[in-house]
Design a protein that fits this description.
Length: 127
């Protein structure tokens, strides 16, 4: 079993920055070398892919809407994945979820294949 706990959300003005963290626990996390991703869901909208990174940190993917502004990274020694969000816009307001899957391709699927979800952290960007 794997548990994912997000933190770092909050209220920020447009143009500002936030860094989200997702701490993973459970023996299965290291054993399966999970790829990690971030998704978000705004009110009244479907959950959408934001960014993903593989275990070796060699493969990172981003949604077009966040390219050049967001950076995903991970520290495997700490079992933690991060999402650095810069130049935030009001349209970035959403609940952000951390996700784990054995492969980045699974996270990128139109119907994302996710083994584990975090509980979510709210990000609100005021204009």
């Amino acid at each position: 079993q794997v548990q994912l706990v997000e933190s770092g959300g909050g209220l920020v003005q447009a143009g500002g920055s936030l860094r989200l963290s997702c701490a993973a626990s459970g023996r299965a996390f290291s054993s399966y070398a999970y790829a990690m991703g971030w998704f978000r869901q705004a009110p009244g909208k479907e959950r959408e892919f934001v960014a993903a990174i593989n275990w070796r940190r060699a493969d990172t993917r981003y949604a077009d809407s966040v390219k050049g502004r967001f950076t995903i990274s991970r520290d495997n020694a700490k079992n933690t994945v991060y999402l650095q969000m810069n130049s935030l816009k009001s349209e970035d307001t959403a609940v952000y979820y951390c996700a784990a899957n054995p492969s980045v391709s699974g996270l990128l699927s139109p119907s994302p294949q996710v083994d584990y979800w975090g509980q979510g952290t709210q990000v609100t960007v005021s204009s």
